[in-house]
Amino acid sequence: MKSSPKPKKIKTGKLAAYHYSDQSVLLISTNGVRLKVNVMSPKMFRVRYTPERRYDQDFSYAIFKEDYDKVNTSFADLDGMVAISTGQLECRIDEKSLRCSFFGENGNLLNEDAKLEWVENVAFGGYDVKVIKHKRRAEKFYGLGDKPTTPLLNGKSFELWGTDSYGYGETTDPLYKNIPFYIGIHEGGYYGIFFDNSFRSRFDFGKKKKAKVSFGANGGEINYYFISGSSPIEVAEQYAILTGLPELPPLWALGYHQCKWSYFPEKRVRKVAKKFRKLQIPCDSIYLDIDYMDGFRVFTWDHSRFPDPKQLLTDLKENGFKTVVMIDPGIKIDEGYLVCKEGLEKDYFCKRGDGPLAVGPVWPGYCYFPDFTNPEVRQWWSDFFTDFLEPGIEGVWTDMNEPALFLVDNFVQCERTFPDDVRHDYDGHPCSHRKAHNIYGMQMSRATFDGIKKAKSEKRPFVITRSTYSGGQRFASVWTGDNSASWKHLKIANWQCQSLSVSGFSFCGSDIGGFIHEPSGELYIRWLQLGIFHPFCRTHSSKDFGPQEPWSFGKRYTRLAKQTIEIRYQILAYMYSAFQRYATTGAPILTPLSWNYPEDQTAHTQDEEFMVGKHILVKSVSRKKARTTKVYLPEGSWYSWWNGKKYKGHKKINFNTPLDRFPFFIKAGSVIPVRPVMQYVDEQPINEMELRIYFDKGHHTSNFYEDIGSGMAYKEGLFSDKVFRVTGTKNSFNIKQKRTGNYKIPYSRYAVKIYGLPFKPNTIKVNGAELDFECKNGELVFSVRQSFRQIMVS
Ligand code: MIG
Q1: Residue 399 designated active-site
Q2: Looking at the predicted structure, is the pLDDT value of residue 410 above 60?
Q3: Stretch 563-580: mean pLDDT
Q4: Among 164, 176, 399, which residue has the most ligand 1 atoms within 8 Å of its CB, making it the best to mutate?
Q5: Which residue has a Cα nearest atom 5 of ligand 1?
Q6: How confident is the model at residue 411 (pLDDT cuts 50, 70, 90)?
């Protein structure tokens, strides 16, 4: 008998021919492998291999920006290699192997292939694809989205295959989100790799082999973007621009949110809302989890629990609460239910490979699932929002969109998601679930975002999603799913949000206090003290456990919770400015400390310290009864938020952390706007903005962005963007303010506080005229018109 052959394995061969034209080079090897290197921008190349004679149709849900300017590109056929270069980034391709290496503008080696590999996929056709890279000396890796481990990914391996991970832990993998982007940091420079492949994929950062890094997938192409940058942040910015920037959210979405599975009936919702106002704990938003629906039918209300949604939502709104409600992708099989009926008539539900509709049990029982990868289906879905939002729904929460299924009699073949053979349109590139799984949640949040836009074009949509793919930041904010109330999980939440943020998803947060189990009062407060720095700041917990509101832990903790949430409202203007920067440049709002000091090796080991925007450093207190906490402050000087005390950096300090304190520092040279505390963002017009200015020698700049906090008028110039430029010397301090935009600022004055002057001030001149001032325990205090041009202190 003839023995059957092994699955075909392909490696790259020798260069046989190449063709260079128009910023791109196509190379063909003697064994038929093709490589296309395409210059996108001076610091970004696209790399695409195929072992066959043909490439797949070129289609991606992630890529947003395609119209990059023409780039001056040079090409050279050198000894043993060909090179394509923009002057700032160069790709050299080895003629013996078609392997790539990338060099920065000083000829520094950034990244180098070790091997490329295709293994025939006998079951489904196509190949399992893999790229193996050499790890550079002391190279550090970051990224990959919501991984529940330290932001530094070295020595670990991961999978991307969106999974409902109830009760996950530090070693659980994969999780909910699918973000195939990572960043490498080493002495030779900084780069990012975006592996734009939606099949189940794997990344290894030196786990399997210490000196190697690899990424690959169970199908599709080796198709990645190589991005270099003069800083890790610049790499992340270019990635965010490539995959698309989000719009500004409504300001209230940066306020505090209160959630529970589940607030019902109506009476309970009203009671929770009332209590916030009674205790004067700021809150902008309240959530309705699945139980508001009629038998878990999406786009319906259970009228026994909520007899008059419109009245309820109107009353809540009058009291400053914006209502966010959950929707799920599973459509209850019930022909009397409009969504089911229409979906069937129009043939919009996913089907199995052989033709039957794909079904699976979720909350409503057996369900069908819209094929959100079909543009017509997204259109249909989005049309539901006009009626659905009508009672006054302000935000939409898309859950279970990995997609998640319950088990049928523990049928083992089912992974609690669709089987592989389910078919998808994939925007006119029909495929199986193997390819569409990782983008399903993203497309659901997209259709939802589009629906809100359509229904309320004058508003800024707010969507929050559990599953998504690269580029999904254009449509939705994210939370980290079903975590637990433990000290370990407080750390995990911190790590996940740092990683999400550097992976394009700055608008992220965790279930504060933990979803599963009950936190102690102390854990809840420590978690809040972290959560107020996450762009998405929400307490949420499961129905299986006790109440989790800021007042659920006794008087002492209620006071602490109030005080903590009030800080969020004080730094809201700062957070909003950081968000605006993210939405215009792609700069992550949260960054691991090391990202700001990539050459500082100590910074890379401080995984619980992070920066919020450019000026705030925070360390979360994640140890029970920790009354003092060690903090590493990097180079420069740092001021304590609490008392303005100045610390010299480049060393570890011990910081006292009684329950009402945690390490929260402002970088010397910063100007921080501090908003008056309100019970919700637009409770009252702002009368006066506080400006805290922290002395440092030399020049520094800070940005302060404002607008009305809702609507789209900011796009027509109704915003105010102020740049503060401060200059400090040993006997003078000069603050200049420049503003652009036409937004009419509601307040006329700043209450200024200057910290850390190294000299005793004699005079203050504002726009040249002398001004009275006070010196209160070392702080300089005075009031100026918000439109000042220059303050001179000497
Ligand atoms: O199977 O809607 O992650 O936030 O409260 C659980 C109920 C479904 C999972 C979400 C969680 C939400 C819960 N949902």
Answers
A1: yes
A2: no
A3: 98
A4: 399
A5: 261
A6: low
Give, as one character, the DSSP assignment of residue 598: T
Indicate whether residue 399 lines ligand 1 (CB < 6 A).
Answer: yes
CB count within 10 Å of CB 714 equals: 22
Question: Can you tell me the distance from the alpha carbon of 688 to that of 726, in angstroms, rounded to the nearest whole number?
Answer: 21
Give the pLDDT of residue 757. 96
Tens of pLDDT, residues 524-562: 999 999 999 999 999 999 999 999 999 999 999 999 999
The two structure tokens encoding residue 693 = 């200015």
Tokens read off for 434: 């193997």
Cβ 234 under 6 angstroms from ligand 1: no
In the 8-state DSSP scheme, what is residue 253? Answer: G
**261 in contact with ligand 1, CB cutoff 6 A:** yes
Q: Is 482 a known active-site residue?
A: yes
φ, ψ for residue 623 (rounded to 5)?
-125, 135
**Which whole-number Å values give the CA distances from 380 to 396, 405, 411, in the listed order?**
17, 23, 33
pLDDT digits (tens, 9 = 90+) for 49-105: 999 888 989 999 999 999 999 999 999 999 999 999 999 999 999 999 999 999 999
Residue 481 Cα to ligand 1 midpoint, Å, equals 8
Residue 486 CA to ligand 1 center (angstroms) comes to 19
Q: Is 291 a catalytic residue?
A: no
pLDDT of residue 778: 82
Q: How confident is the model at residue 157 (pLDDT cuts 50, 70, 90)?
A: very high
**Three-state SS at 490:** helix
Average pLDDT along the chain: 97
Q: What is the pLDDT of residues 600-627, one digit of tens each?
A: 999 999 999 999 999 999 999 999 999 9
Q: Which helix (H) or strand (E) holds 489?
A: helix 487-502
Amino acid letter, residue 346: K
The average pLDDT across 316-342 equals: 98
Residue 386: CA count within 13 A, CB half-sphere: 4
Indicate whether residue 141 lines ligand 1 (CB < 6 A): no
Cα distances from 186 to residues 136, 212, 582, in angstroms, run 7, 14, 25
Q: Establish whether residue 290 lines the binding site of ligand 1, counting it when its CB lies within 6 angstroms of any ligand atom.
A: yes
User: What one-character-per-residue DSSP string does 607-626 give?
Assistant: TTEEEETTTEEEE---STT-
Contacts of 1 (CB under 8 A, 6+ apart): none
Could you give the 3-state DSSP secondary structure of residue 10?
strand
DSSP character at residue 225: E
**Does residue 1 carry a pLDDT above 70?**
no
Residue with the smallest CA separation from ligand 1 atom 6 is 400
User: Cβ-count burial of 622 within 10 angstroms (0-12 exposed, 13-18 middle, 19+ buried)?
Assistant: buried
Q: Identify whether the C-beta of residue 43 lies closer than 8 Å to the C-beta of residue 55.
A: no
**CB 272, CB 258: distance < 8 Å:** yes
pLDDT at residue 413 above 60?
no
pLDDT higher than threshold 60 for residue 425: yes
- Cα of 399 to ligand 1 centre, how many Å? 7
- Lay out the sheet containing 646-648: strands in order across: 590-592, 609-612, 616-619, 664-667, 637-640, 646-648
The active-site residue, picked from 402, 518, 706, 721, is 402
The yes-or-no verdict on residue 409 having pLDDT over 80 is: no
Which protein residue's CA is at the shortest distance from atom 2 of ligand 1? 290
Indicate left, alpha or beta for 554 from its phi (over 0: left) and psi (-120 to 50: alpha).
left
Question: How much distance in Å is there from the Cα of 700 to the middle of ligand 1?
Answer: 45
**Tens digit of pLDDT for each residue in 467-516?**
999 999 999 999 999 999 999 999 999 999 999 999 999 999 999 999 99
Q: Which of 165, 176, 261, 417 to mutate to test the pocket of ligand 1 (most atoms within 8 A of CB)?
A: 261
Count of CB atoms within 10 A of residue 57's CB? 8
